[in-house]
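Researcher: First entry.
Model:
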Amino acid sequence: MRILTATKLAAATAGAVLLATGTAHALDDDKPTTAATIAAGAAAHTDGVQIDAGAPVITRDDILIHAPLHTIWKIQTHVENWPTWQPDVDVVVKDTPGRLRPGSVFRWTTEGLNITSTVKQVDYGKRLAWGGPAQGITAIHVWTFTPTTDGVLVHTEESWTGDPVTANEATLQTALDNSLHNWVNNLKHQAESQVGK
């Protein structure tokens, strides 16, 4: 039995939650979106499940993807295929067959960690939310998809609460910031690479 130091425990906890919410290494995006486009996208999808606005760790990120909405949605919601474009995700198993829907459960394995997520909301082509506890941290992760004249604006936001977050707030804030930045860039790369195929 290994004994983890406080630093290793914080890293393991952050890794578990980051990967439970869909993180991986990424490629950089090619251009920033405008503040007006981001505001319009965020305002368009405020109904339903929300992150915990009082959480000590909250991250929001946006990216404009030059691919059809149905392509982006399929990549994001076919969780069993995540390992093909998310390098840190080893295996994803859907416990609930069929399309993702509220109550769907999927489990994933990454870096030796087993994580379970439960889908909280699905508004086809518009909004997706999942969450659950991992290593003492409760995560809520919300995604919105807004078609624009330039592509699809993908907005994601996530909140973390729990004792490990309170104990390591600065470290976990940085980890989640990096995580969501990488996730949206991986999604962009995967979706744009499928355009024209």
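Researcher: Second entry.
Model:
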Amino acid sequence: MTEVLTVVGRVATDPVRGQTRGGIAVTNFRLASTHRRLDPVTQTWVDGETNWFSIAAFRQLGEHAKASLRCGDSVIVTGRLKIRNWESNGKNGTSVDIEADAIGHDLRWGTTAYLRTPRASAAESQGRTPPEPEPDSHAELDESDIAMPLASAWDGLPGAVDSAELSH
């Protein structure tokens, strides 16, 4: 059975793109995760031990990770845990790997701009020209057409701001 876990940490190495022996794209990087706790005596935050993980992101996730992540970025990684023993040049050790299912920036510490990449249509993936897209039915909408219906949907919920307050 493979354990699925979520780890919050910092990218410790710039992501590196490679390929498996079978030609599948993979991006690898190291992740450092340090547990912090509040010392009740000194009332200061104290770093605990750092856990190190080797992250492997395959295919499109790997391509996006390579384009989006840099050393030092705060991230959240969810994936399957793989623990393996290794031996190389007379040394041996244990590697803790995560085969990533999802990776994202940790928005507690900064902002990011999401850019969705278009997927190839079935026609494009088979080398055919896809049909022309239909005209955008939302092209005539302005910001107020969208903002007010969303704001009024929250009216009356506990802790919600009244939509009349938003229009001022």
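Model: Note on the second entry: The longest strand covers residues 25-39.
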